[in-house]
Amino acid sequence: MNTATFASHWYFVLPNFVMAALMYTMLGRFLLGLMVDADSPNYIWRFFCRITDPVVTVFSLVTPKAVPSALLWLFGFVWMFWLRVAFHYTLLLFDLAPRVTGAAS
Q1: What are the helix (H) ranges across the chain?
Q2: To 10 degrees, the CA torsion angle through 87, 47, 30, 19?
Q3: 6 confidence band (pLDDT: 50, 70, 90)
Q4: I need a surface site. Which of 46, 78, 86, 102 has the fewest CB within 10 A?
């Protein structure tokens, strides 16, 4: 993607990038949570918690309360994936999503 494409589709690229980063950070938190205690002073663990806690709080509102916290992080990953799919589909419906032009030979 060149600069002209990025500048003309920033409304797609930036939110998609932020959602992807949060999505994979939640997956990383889940995987790291399998090896680290929840109250660990590890700076990497604290970073993952600080970045994902606001997102996990939002997704906990739509996830059943019976779900354990570690599994909530995994559900957050799935919720974020479907949010990205819905975002992309919505932009496609309004013909705002970037499309590939030209054929590869």
Answers
A1: 3-8, 10-33, 43-60, 69-93
A2: 10
A3: confident
A4: 102
Query: What pLDDT is recorded for position 105?
Result: 53
Contact partners, residue 60, CB within 8 Å, separation at least 6? 72
C-alpha 33/C-alpha 55 separation (Å) is 16
Contact 28, 48 (CB under 8 A): yes
- Contact 29/52 with Cβ under 8 angstroms? yes
Classified as helix, coil or strand, 96 is: coil
- In angstroms, rounded to a whole number, what is the distance separating the alpha carbons of residues 66 and 18? 29
Residue 27 corresponds to which amino acid? L
> What residue spans define the domains of the chain?
16-93
CA-nearest of 2, 52, 8, 7 to 27 is 52
The set of residues, in sequence order, having a beta carbon less than 8 Å from that of 5 and lying 6+ positions away, is 98
Q: For 66, phi and psi rounded to 5 degrees?
A: -75, -10
